[in-house]
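<context>
A single protein, sequence plus fold
<entry> Chain with its tokenised backbone below
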Amino acid sequence: MLVSAILADKGTDVVTVSPQQNVQELLALLSQHKVGALVVSNDGKTIAGIVSERDIVRALAAGESLMSEPVSSIMTSEVFVSTTHVKIDELMTVMTSRRIRHIPITTDSGELIGIVSIGDLVKARLSELETEKAALVDYITHGG
């Protein structure tokens, strides 16, 4: 299964936050949209970074007072991205090895068109396995 199938199911809406917005606004967006990470972008198409709950926790643990600080001060600027034609198994491997939970999805030219979480990938993989199981059970019980 490809990433494109996940986006076809979940949609391509991506909530973004600008690097200039403050952390208080970021927290409101995370809460409002019930997500764990936001892509940082000035225009909703180009990626300046990504900011997750983990970034916030690290900044707080460093003793920083950050509510009025800009998102750019805590975001991760080196972002791993993927395109729609990557297999979900490959993406799961990357997410596990890099210890990341959200990957922005871009066109081949780099324009932001979606985001997937590890939860999205696990859900898709479980669905795929359930379909395979049903086909095998049908084959075994009804013959080839």
Notes: The chain has one domain: 3-142. The first strand starts at residue 16 and ends at 17. The chain is about 45% helix and 15% strand.
